[in-house]
Each structure stands twice: as C-alpha cells, then as structure tokens.
Amino acid sequence: MKKILRVEQIQKYYGNKENLTKAIDGISFEVEEGEFIGIMGASGSGKTTLLNCISTIDHVSSGHIFLEDRDITEIKEEEIAKFRRENLGFIFQDFNLLDTLTIEENIALILTINRMPEEEIEKKTKEIARKLGISDILNKYPYQVSGGQKQRCACGRAIVHSPKLILADEPTGSLDSKSARQLLEIMEQMNRVMQTTILMVTHDPLSASYCSKILFLKDGKIFNKIEKGDSTNLEFYNEILDVLALLGGDIRGC
Questions:
Q1: Domain 3-253 fold
Q2: What secondary structure does DSSP assign to 71-106, as a single string?
Q3: What is the pLDDT of residue 249?
Q4: Which sequence spans correspond to the domains of the chain?
C-alpha cells in the first residue's frame, strides 16, 4: 500500500528553559492510503498537539513529518495556506461553517478559492452532496439545518477537493448520539467507498470503533496501538475499552 503519511521521531516543547513542557516525546508512525486511524489518550497526552503538527497549525521542535514525499516541517510560512488547501481536509467539532453562505457555497468554498471553473465546482459539489444525502438542503443556510446536516456539510467541504488526508478533531463532540452515529457511518463510507484517508482524534470509544487502527498516547508517547482487522465494531469497541483501562487516567476526558 502507498504510504500517505510518515511521522518520524517528532518532539514538541512548549514554554522556555525555566518552564519547559514536552507535549510530544519521539512519536513515529505511518499511515497508508485508505486507512482510518484513530488517536486516543487522556487529557494532556499530546493527541491534539500531534494533530496540530500534522496539519501545520503548529511546528515540531524536532523530527520530520512527510505527506507522501514532501517534508511538511520544511514548508515556508508563506506556502502553508496553499499547502493546506491543496492537500488537507478538516472536520471540526464545531463545524466551522460560514452562516452567510448556503450549504452548497460552504461545500464549494475551497474550490472557489482554488479558482476552479464554475461548471466544475457545481458538478463536484452536487456529486458530494448526493453521496452525503444532503442534496435537498443545498440552498439552505447553516442556521436553517440540523446539527447532523451541518456536520455532513462539513464532511462535504473536507472531501470535495479530493485531499490526500482528512484530519478530524473530535468530530462527534457536539452531536447527539443519533447524529454522531450517522456521521461516523458517513466517515466510514468515505473511507471504505472513496478510499479517503482519515486521521481522527477522539475521546469516545464508540467513535474509535469505526476506525481501522487506533494509536493510544500517554505522556506524549505511543503507549499502544491496535488494529481492527476482521473484528466487528462491537468486538473492536471492547478491545478499545480494555486498552483504555490499562492506559489509566481520566478515560472520560481522553
């Protein structure tokens, strides 16, 4: 399988010499094309810092991160925005939709910024909306639709430009249980049918059970990793709970 992401011995420090905190301590792993990877760990374990470093929102203190063959730790500041637009998709807990744009315009935003021809933008946007089951709300505004529909829109915006990697930060955090399950099924479908590569930070074992592999972090290091293989979601869910019990700490806030 093609390697999409390689994280090599990254470290991240915050603060100064008098008050130095090591948020990430020598993490290394690889993500293959089409994988759905979950990242779990107690509060302060480094999972959000790791996601921020991969997304170029934050900079590593040492080590390297490669997206395909490009070392993203070497990208110049003025090139970062363009790199994100062309290579990454983001799904946030709070949707981050623009209320002044329709659902269709929100999905199409990155294509518009990338100056894609209008005819192609419309075609791609409608195709993604159909796959996500939101074709009937394209002309509505975010405040006119449900939380689950907003999150589907956010998924559409994340994948419409066919990014190499989707980064999801607690995507079910602000959804009720029904909407959360629907979103996870959509993400699983994106991964299985469209071969979308997804890296998801989550505190929720149920959400994690939809992934193909889980990395567990503790004190800025990889504590354990497990793969779903042929297990059912329920079997994988129970395996995740077993590792979380070993991990200790505040599991509810992981």
A1: Rossmann fold (3.40.50)
A2: EGGG--GGGHHHHHHHHEEEEETT----TTS-HHHH
A3: 53
A4: 3-253
